[in-house]
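Query structure, 349 tokens:
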């Protein structure tokens, strides 16, 4: 099968996406597919050859490791030679039209928010994962919580607020602490801050403005973190996440050894089943398809709190859905092929 692996893009999760794309592209080639890797934002700058040759071109292995720091997007804009305002770099759409399927290895607001999916639907380009509407809803943490509220899903109390730098001193003195400050449309724990005192709250609100002027202020839940993937409308085993240094932040997620990940998670069969059923409920309530991954806190008092859902879960060397799939006997390559096969069915509907 001829497959384009679309990665990179223009989001703070760009480096994670590139790593996912390299892994997926290599796995698909090892299983006999023709797979081309392309950065959605930079595209084919400087390439003058036959597009079909890219399905056999060397894979840029140096992009496999995820750096500790998020990328400098302003520098990336400056690097782009054509200076176009399109999120699609030169030749990207043309290359995608050459393929039987585009594997979306994108993460964050540039690729996971439904815009790429909508564009591909209009152009008749088949792609992996959920459609444009479910992706857009799931990317908005506030809207997701509102929609699942009628489905009996427990989630930490929250409110959203839009603010400017001048309002931070007043918010510092008025918001309830402890809390969690979250940017509404971000992932990989970028723009997420656990706040336990007023100074930390002020710092969190200032840092969050780097991403967006609207944030979610969420109830802090003390407990253990779990995640649970859904593949083809079936819940996978949970993973318990135990950061070795701090909370499960960007660095802990993608640096080998920074986090202890236990699959299945250490809990009772009843809690395991409850998490898995809730992940399915969220997946279905938002109209998602093919695969997703939901994150949870199991509180010290036993309450199971849904946090958020990811429609294009990471597939890096340290990512969680591949670990869950391995627990039920699916290799990394088999998981990629299952995602493609299920996506073919989803695009026909």
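Result returned for the query:
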């Amino acid at each position: 099968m001829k497959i384009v692996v679309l990665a990179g893009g223009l989001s703070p999760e760009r480096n994670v996406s590139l790593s996912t794309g390299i892994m997926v592209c290599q796995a698909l080639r090892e299983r006999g597919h023709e797979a081309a890797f392309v950065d959605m934002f930079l595209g084919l700058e400087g390439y003058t050859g036959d597009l079909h040759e890219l399905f056999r071109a060397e894979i840029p292995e140096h992009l496999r490791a995820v750096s500790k720091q998020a990328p400098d997007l302003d520098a990336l804009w400056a690097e782009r030679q054509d200076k176009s305002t399109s999120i699609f770099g030169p030749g990207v759409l043309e290359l995608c039209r050459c393929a039987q399927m585009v594997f979306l290895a994108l993460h964050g607001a540039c690729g996971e928010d439904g815009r790429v999916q909508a564009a591909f639907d209009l152009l008749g380009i088949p792609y992996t994962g959920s459609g444009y509407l479910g992706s857009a809803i799931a990317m908005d943490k506030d809207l997701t919580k509102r929609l699942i509220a009628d489905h009996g899903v427990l989630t930490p109390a929250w409110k959203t607020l839009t603010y400017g730098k001048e309002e931070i001193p007043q918010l510092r003195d008025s918001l309830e602490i402890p809390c969690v400050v979250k940017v509404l449309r971000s992932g990989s724990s970028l723009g997420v801050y656990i706040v336990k005192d007023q100074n930390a709250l002020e710092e969190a609100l200032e840092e969050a403005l780097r991403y967006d002027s609207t944030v979610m202020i969420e109830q802090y839940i003390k407990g253990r973190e779990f995640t649970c993937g859904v593949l083809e409308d079936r819940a996978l085993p949970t993973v318990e996440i135990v950061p070795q240094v701090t909370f499960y932040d960007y660095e802990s997620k993608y640096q080998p050894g920074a986090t202890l990940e236990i699959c299945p998670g250490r809990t009772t069969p009843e809690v395991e089943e409850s998490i898995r059923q809730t992940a399915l409920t969220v997946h279905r309530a938002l109209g998602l398809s093919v695969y997703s991954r939901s994150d949870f806190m199991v509180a010290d008092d036993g309450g199971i709190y849904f946090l958020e859902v990811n429609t294009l879960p990471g597939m890096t060397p340290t990512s969680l859905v591949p670990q869950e799939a391995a627990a039920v006997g699916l290799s990394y390559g088999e998981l990629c092929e299952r995602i493609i096969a299920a996506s073919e069915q989803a695009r026909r509907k």
